Amino acid sequence: MAEKKKGFRAGLYAVIVGVILAVVLTAMTIFAFTTRYTGFKPDKVARQYVDTIVQTGDGYNAYKNTLVSKNQKYGNFIVNAYMAPYVNDGEDVKQADFVGTGSAEEQEAIDKVYNTMYDYYVDLVKNIGWDDYDTFFNSYFSKLKEIRHGVYGDDYLDTEYMFGALEANVDTYGESLTGAEETLADDGKTVVKEAFDGKYAELFGKDYKLTAEVTECKELNHDESVAYIQEYAARITDVATLDANELSESGLTDDEAKKNMTEAFAKLDCSELISNVAEATVEVKDQNGKTVATQKVYVVKIDSGWYVDNTNIDTSGLYLAK
After folding, report:
1. Within the chain, how many helices (H) and strands (E) appear?
2. How far is the C-alpha of 57 from the C-alpha of 129, rounded, in Å?
3. CA atoms within 13 A on the CB side of 267
4. Residue 70: strand, helix, or coil
5. pTM
6. Which residues of the chain, if any, have pLDDT below 50?
7. I need a labelling partner for 243 at 20 to 30 A (CA). Which of 11, 23, 48, 231 fits?
8. Is residue 199 within 8 Å of residue 221, measured between CB atoms?
9. What is the pLDDT of residues 189-212, one digit of tens each?
10. CB under 8 Å to 264, separation ≥6 — which residues?
11. 254's torsion region: left (phi>0), alpha (psi -120 to 50) or beta?
């Protein structure tokens, strides 16, 4: 019998490659899952919350990691709970003639509103703080309505304009801390924004690096969790039980808007959904390993996810530029 010639076994090779590929894809999936979905680990949620604030002073977006966003989209909550009384975008509401023209006059008006609101935003960060988001949002949008009317001479406001102003201010405040690189126009030559160092460079040096690290994270025992949940329920009751009559004081006349606002606040109460509570300590260190801030964070478990309890925290120490 002739000896069988040894050769390339495509079938076996394919199986081996398939197994290796499966292992690699599984590892990549696990890595992507664990890095993206931090909400499944209490320590990661606590760290992300603190890091979001300390890197750019962004108490606005930090709420995406909290109970505020558990039962509703964060943007929808802001629209229904705080923007609704100021939105006046009906067809019968006339806007200034220059709106939508892309003219220098329109750009000048936008810049004036954004710059005026930025000064007001900074004052709110310093004197109110994002821990009291209720006062923060109400104060900000009320002022925006006033400033928009003074600059544009109209009574028009829509959610896009309101988010545009707020988020522009959030970004500008962040850059005031971190600094910014030079920005050029589309022609690649015209300087739109000059490079500058921010407050953090002044405080910690140009090569600063701030790192948030969880130094301790422990889950409360059953009795402690029950007591904590009861305390949380007491804290959230006032804002979660507003009715349409009380909300009428905000200036709302549309019944649908009142209903949306009532539901937005009602969805804040997560007391009956919480199954466990954890206490985390997060330290913020500079590039030299020096601790520049320490923050205690309580995170609560609902189903398989963890959320920061924003009703029980004081983040004033994370605004390092203050």
Report:
1. 11, 6
2. 10
3. 19
4. coil
5. 0.85
6. 1-19, 23-24, 27-36
7. 231
8. no
9. 888 788 899 999 999 999 999 999
10. 72, 76, 77, 80, 81
11. beta
